[in-house]
Amino acid sequence: MQIKIVIGTIAFMLTMMVFGYSALREPARLDRFTNAELGRSIESGAHIFANNCATCHGTDGTAQNCVDAAGNQIACQGLPLNYNGLLCGDPSQRMTDMGWKGTKAAYVLTTVSAGRGTIMPTWSEQFGGPLRQDQVRDVTNFVLNWESETLCAAPVVTFAWPEKAEDFLAGTDEIQVTEGDPARGQELFSITYGCQACHGTIDGSVPAVLGPSLANIETDGATRVEGMDALNYVYHSILYPSDFIAPECPTGPCAGPPSAMTANFGANDRMGGNPQDMADILAYVLQP
Ligand code: HEC
Ligand code: HEC
Q1: Is 281 found in the same domain as 170?
Q2: Dist. CA 67–CA 110, nearest whole Å
Q3: Is 55 in the pocket of ligand 1 (CB under 6 A)?
Q4: Is position 250 within any domain?
């Protein structure tokens, strides 16, 4: 009898130990499970992005290289997504600018689900878009996965843009620019920086869609901000779009601040690393 109780007790204790051990292991198993699940989600998000988003946001999400269905390079109409302003920090710079109080994931998910403004489409079925909710989640996970140590190591804007356009054009120790070339400026305006996708052409042959037409900006620009001439106004508008919101956009009064215009043109991996681009764009935009 005694021996049975002892055996029973030992067996009970062993069982508890096995249970206890697997209970301890459970979080690790769950982690592995969620990681594999997240991996699959990101992978399927990559396909959704390539097929639905890359034409506007660029193949790598930097809005610098967009191709149409036939493989021709076109101007990127979307904002950059794969950049530190949107993805780094909690909240990120972009979330703060937009006054977003929720999480980063919710910011991306909500924008993708419901769309925004006149160009960014509505994607979720819930709002009449073409994607199921799990597909919206997958593409959101794909976008969020661009956050990395390398991406976030560089501050949002570190290039020291001089306050005044004249000082920039005259050059400083760090910046040497030659006289602006309007022909090169036109190329940068239409393709490289995608200004044309929102503003149309300067001669008006392609109408503006999202931002104001810049056809008369060489005169209008001088009337926007007290004490600022057209050159300084355009220079400032490119670097800090939200500082002053233009009155009239193609679909009514311009929204903002924050501006619907791309906010990172001055960053190091854009004009900050290629200041001559700024000089050439100014020459093109401001030609009479
Ligand atoms: C037809 C062009 C177009 C397509 C296609 C497109 N977008 Fe956009 N997207 C835009 C534009 C333009 C904006 C800026 C809208 C605004 O602020 O007015 C934007 C904004 C965004 C933003 C918010 C960025 C920010 O900084 O606030 C996210 C996130 C986004 N898009 C993700 C996607 C995803 C994911 C897809 C594919 C499922 C997609 N977009 C497809 C044009 C597009
Ligand atoms: C995603 C769309 C978009 C892109 C790309 C874009 N802009 Fe804009 N831009 C806007 C919107 C919207 C406004 C009006 C709101 C504001 O004032 O910020 C604007 C305003 C401006 C203004 C002030 C216009 C006025 O009438 O006062 C200038 C100048 C300008 N943009 C130049 C540029 C240049 C140069 C580029 C390319 C390097 C560019 N923009 C790229 C959307 C865009």
Answers
A1: yes
A2: 26
A3: yes
A4: yes
Same domain, 176 and 119: no
Q: How many angstroms separate the alpha carbon of residue 120 from the centre of ligand 1? A: 5
Residue 182 contacts residue 284 (beta carbons within 8 Å): yes
Q: Output the pLDDT for position 70.
A: 86
Q: Supply the residue whose CA is at minimum distance from atom 18 of ligand 1.
A: 117
Residue 26 C-alpha to ligand 1 middle, in angstroms? 39
Sequence-distant contacts of 73-76: CB under 8 A, at least 24 apart? 73/191, 74/191, 75/190, 75/191, 75/194, 75/195, 75/196, 75/197, 76/194, 76/197
Task: Please choose, from the candidates 264, 282, 269, 268, the residue with its C-alpha nearest in 3D space to the C-alpha of residue 178.
Answer: 282
- Domain hosting 70: range is 66-153
For atom 6 of ligand 2, the residue with the nearest CA is 195
CA distance 270 to 149: 19
pTM, full prediction: 0.64
Are residues 228 and 140 part of one domain? Answer: no
Q: What is the pLDDT of residues 8-36, one digit of tens each?
A: 666 666 666 666 565 556 666 667 767 88
**Run of H or E residues at 20:** helix 2-52
| Contact between 286 and 166 (Cβ < 8 Å) | no
113 close to 122: Cβ distance less than 8 angstroms? yes
Distance 189 CA to ligand 1 centre (A): 20
Q: How many CA atoms lie within 13 A of 185 on its CB side?
A: 19
